[in-house]
Every structure is written in C-alpha cells, then in structure tokens.
C-alpha cells in the first residue's frame, strides 16, 4: 500500500513552506493552521478530506486556528497550497508499484484526499497500477482514523503482516502498526525503496 502525497509525489511541505515563509512562521505552525493537528478532528481541511465539506469552504473556516496561532491570514493560503505545478511525480516509486504488480503482488493506494482533487491524481498517477484505491473522501474517514484502515483491509481482503504500507507522516502509521501491518516511514524515497525491498525479501 502506497500513500500519494510525499510517497508517489513530492511532499506538500514544499507548498506549505512557501506559505509559511510569507507569514514569517515555522512550517509546523502553518501546517497546523491550514491542515489541522496530527490528531484527527473537526479542522476544516480534515473535514474536507472526509468529504463533509467542499475544498472551497476550507479557507473561510480557518480563523479560529489562525487566531490560536497568532496569525492573520490573507485569504489565499489554501489556494496557494493547492496551486498546480508545485510538486513532481516520484518516478522511481511509481515504477516500483508497476513492477510489484507485474510480478504478482497486490498493490494499493491509500490516501487522504478531496473529491475535487481526484481528476488531478488520476492525471499524475496511473490508477491502473493499483488493485485497490482507498480515498478518504469516499470512505468518510481519514488517516489516522481507524475506519480507513479497516476499509483498506476489506478492499484488499488481507490483514496484519500481509500488508506493507508506505506513508510520509508518522502519525498515519501508528494504527497500521497496531493492526500488525509492516510500515515504512518515507522521508527519503531511495531509502524507503531499499527498506521495502528488504521487507519483501523471502
């Protein structure tokens, strides 16, 4: 199982970092304001990932989080983060997915995303390379909430150590570890591919 952002494409931290720099704040602060805390709750970005609200509604609902961080938002921050052309497909990771499926592994995409972003995802990544695609907005649950991992197991017809999962946010790996999945934190794509090769070696 592969995450999308930060695994199959470069990390959203690039966009967030540019927005943070315009406000003179740390990347972590801006991530918390625009995307919410690591724990899942009622932040508008997280609600949009569960399909509860539209992406267009996020910006107008951010004031409480901005005020708590001592920030005054301009009103274009979400548009700046979502601006096309700010990330690249990680070709060696995508090639690995294709190769794994070719030799008989079941492959899957497990991602927090918005329904509005699906056409862009399908443009940037070949969905036919995956046996299963699990998207937060379609499930009504987002990582790290337990339900999306249950939905993944149901889609795969597999549980526990039969599943290997790569994600770039450590908080998204805690529940899979509890469920016995083999997990890889991706902060370097080449190192993650080496680790994946070791996991799959008989």
Description:
- It is a single chain.
- By secondary structure, the protein is mainly alpha-helical.
- 44% of the residues lie in helices and 8% in strands.
- The chain has eleven helices and four strands; from the N terminus they run ααααααβαβααβαβα.
- The strands form two sheets. A two-stranded parallel ribbon has the order 1-2.
- Helix 1 crosses helix 2.
- The longest helix is centred in the middle third of the chain and has 12 residues, at 91-102.
- The chain is globular and about 55 Å long.
- The mean pLDDT is 95.
What is the chain-wise order of helices and strands?
HHHHHHEHEHHEHEH
Could you give the distance between the termini?
18 Å
Are there runs of 5+ residues with pLDDT below 50, and where? none
Strand residues, percent: 5-15%
Global shape? globular
Count of individual beta strands: 4
Largest sheet: 2 strands, parallel
How many helical stretches?
A: 11
Strand order of the largest sheet: 1-2
Mean pLDDT across every amino acid position: 95
Helix content: 40-55%
From the helix content, strand content and strand pairing, which structural class follows? mainly alpha
Radius of gyration: 17 Å
């Amino acid at each position: 199982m592969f995450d999308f952002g930060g695994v199959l494409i470069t990390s959203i931290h690039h966009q967030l970092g540019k927005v943070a720099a315009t406000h003179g704040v740390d990347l972590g602060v801006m991530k918390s304001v625009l995307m919410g805390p690591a724990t899942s709750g009622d932040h508008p970005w997280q609600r949009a990932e569960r399909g509860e609200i539209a992406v267009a509604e996020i910006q107008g609902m951010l004031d409480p989080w901005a005020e708590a961080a001592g920030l005054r938002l301009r009103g274009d921050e979400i548009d700046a983060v979502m601006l096309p052309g700010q990330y690249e497909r990680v070709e060696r990771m995508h090639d690995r997915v294709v190769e794994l499926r070719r030799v008989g592994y079941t492959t899957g995409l497990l991602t927090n995303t918005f329904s509005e972003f699906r056409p862009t995802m399908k443009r940037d990544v070949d969905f036919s390379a995956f046996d299963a695609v699990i998207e937060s907005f379609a499930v009504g649950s987002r990582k790290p909430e337990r339900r999306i991992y249950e939905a993944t197991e149901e889609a795969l017809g597999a549980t526990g150590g039969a599943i290997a999962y790569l994600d770039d946010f450590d908080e998204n790996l805690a529940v899979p570890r509890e469920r016995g999945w083999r997990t890889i934190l991706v902060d370097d794509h080449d190192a993650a591919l080496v680790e994946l090769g070791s996991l799959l070696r008989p």
